[in-house]
Amino acid sequence: MTGDWNLPAAPPAPTPLPDNSDPVRLLIVAQAARAQALYTHFASDARFAVQAIATDPADARAKLTYDSEVALVELVTFAGPAEFGTTFAAYRGAVAALAPATLPGSDVEAVRQTPCVSQVLPEQINLPELAGVLYDTARNRRTAQNGNAASFAPLRGGTATIGFRSLAVWSPQGGVGKSTLALALALEATQRRIPTLLVGLGAPDGIPLILDGIRPDPNILTWQAAPSHPDGLRAAIQIHKRTGQHILVGFRAPTDVGGFEAFTGPTSLSNLAFQASMAGYALVVLDVSTQELAPAALSAANTLVLVGRADLPGIRSILEGVSLVKDKMAGQHAIPDGAIHLVLNRVRDTTLRPDEVIAYGKRERRDFPPLAAVVADDPNVEVAINRMEPAYYGSDSLRRAAKSLGNLLFPAVVSAAPAAGQPAKVKQIGPLRIKL
């Protein structure tokens, strides 16, 4: 556990449900863009606790074990009724299925025949109405199971807007694999032809230690010499020959951090993200490996991937991270509730199960973030690191998690990166504002 972040005092805690009843445990299964919108809505509703988000059938099957009461399922996520039925055949909760208007009546009827399906609803249903349907479904199930009805809190609104994406990969806990995951996410985005800059914030930075061909210099201090000049960032960036990944290396030594003003002014990390967007990058991945820089990195981000271990110290660390973002730094960043994504790394048989982590976290905070991905403990990660190769290519578990997160965080595919020297044109694709 880390100490005081030297930030303003936390605001008062949110008002609890009137009767302290447990919120409805919800699983969202939808295509990436819709999943983000649905999560944003239900995360702002005190009646619900989103357990996890899944964006494809395999991801859904993995997360059906997380003790959700209700699953909200967009049927277009599945190839057809047969795949849907196979996925949810043993589910013990209730499923509310969202069907597109073009779905044949025979397919709708096949979905209805799945035992766990409580209703099939139109895909374009009004979200407050949908929340009411899901809530009534859970209330009726609780009444049937317990013999009495629970009380319910009023609906609360909430929105989130995401444009250019600056993504912080962070944890208050050390040794959880932040740098490995940050590199994997950057490589996943680059493979999707999304112009991506990976920024190391270690001191000393670990990227040159785990990636062959990347040197300690030039680095972020090179950019510090000309932070607002168009050529300042270009001069500091290295390109990994094998992968084509653009990388801004962090600090050579801990003593370099003290003279770096990361929070305000031209060398702030917020200005770094802005300069990257002006240079044509659609995505900046901040590998937040130095805890002193965490508040500045969070202030520069509009998306957070919070990494944790599946054990009790890991849960407490995740809770501390949520507290920093939502309480101590409230109003000092642009990360909405719907853009905080939890990843459990190095999960194995001797750790807690992911559903146990979520259940414990939700008991401590109702706004504990939903689980976005699980990375199994894989010795191939260490093998790749020892070879100074990206573990993204050597570990199936890490690569699957990166792809699942990629579907959720940056589903857009860009046909080509911007050509050097050409004026950038801006195109809105899904959640990203891409400079073409």
Task: Please supply descriptive tags for the structure shown above.
8-stranded mixed β-sheet, Rossmann fold, 436 residues, disordered C terminus, 5-stranded parallel β-sheet, 16 helices, alpha/beta, disordered N terminus
**In the CATH hierarchy, what is the superfamily of the largest domain?**
P-loop containing nucleotide triphosphate hydrolases
Structure class: alpha/beta
Reported CATH architecture of the largest domain: 3-Layer(aba) Sandwich
> Which strand order do you get reading across the main beta sheet?
8-9-7-10-6-11-12-13
Report the oligomer.
single chain
Give the low-confidence spans. Answer: 1-20, 147-163, 412-436
Detailed description of the structure:
36% of the residues lie in helices and 18% in strands. The protein folds into 2 domains: 24-146, Rossmann fold (3-Layer(aba) Sandwich), CATH 3.40.50.2300; 165-435, Rossmann fold, CATH 3.40.50.300. It is elongated, with a radius of gyration of 22 Å. The strands form 3 sheets. It has an 8-stranded mixed β-sheet with strand order 8-9-7-10-6-11-12-13, with helices on both faces. A 5-stranded parallel β-sheet has the order 2-1-3-4-5, with helices on both faces. It is of the alpha/beta class and 436 residues long. The longest helix has 20 residues, at 127-146. It is built from 16 helices and 15 strands. Residues 1-20, 147-163 and 412-436 have low confidence and may be disordered.
